[in-house]
Amino acid sequence: MWMKKQIPNIITLLNLFSGCVAVIFAVIGKLELAALFVVIGIFFDFFDGLAARMLNVQSELGLQLDSLADMVTSGVVPGIVMFQLLNKAVGFDLISENIISSGNGVTVQSYIPFIGLIVILASAYRLAKFNIDTRQTTSFIGVPTPANTLLIVSLPLILTYQSLDWIEVLILNPWFLIGLTILCSYLLNAEIGLFALKFKTWDFGTNKLRYIFIIITLLMIIGLQFVAIPMIILLYVLLSVLFTEKSIA
Length: 249
Known about the structure:
Layout: H1 2-27, H2 31-55, H3 60-90, H4 99-102, H5 118-132, E1 139-141, H6 145-161, H7 165-171, H8 174-189, E2 193-195, H9 208-224, H10 228-243
Antiparallel strand pairs: 1-2
């Protein structure tokens, strides 16, 4: 019985482990590998709650552990990725040039990459609020941290594997990245009702919106590959606004 209770927690810890690996890769600038381990972590995050419900072993410990794991995988990692993208966008590597220790050549532009860390703060606030918000039992209020993370980590993948001149110019525009940081941070905590992607049953009738969204998502990924990811997150928000009936009043 004890082992049965720990199965969802083990899955959650695998999410945390994946997030820690992703942090290491993000810090050293291996953003594609960071994105890979983020996806692995989100995969585990999707199934820990499902496992807890199927085994009927939901617990307060599991809830808190889930948020702590998400804080790393879907909070710290996207913030570091945004930092690295802004670093590249301004063409001034604050770390590799040892500017911090030497103090030479420091300008306002030098500190622009730190704006990306706002994503971490917004994610922490969103996760803490989620744990005490009784309105978010069957749906979300504000964009979930995993969805926000997928949007951000898709950017280096687009640059590496699908980059066209205009895409690179857009993504590596510091104003675009600053605007995206502010928008993502806002949407994480906005009073917008969004449907949850975690299934309580596999019944089509009660999960119709989820199944339709998943089918469209798969088709978009097949057709557009990594470029589809930001579009899918936008679609998720739009479908939620149009079809989610949950009141947030």
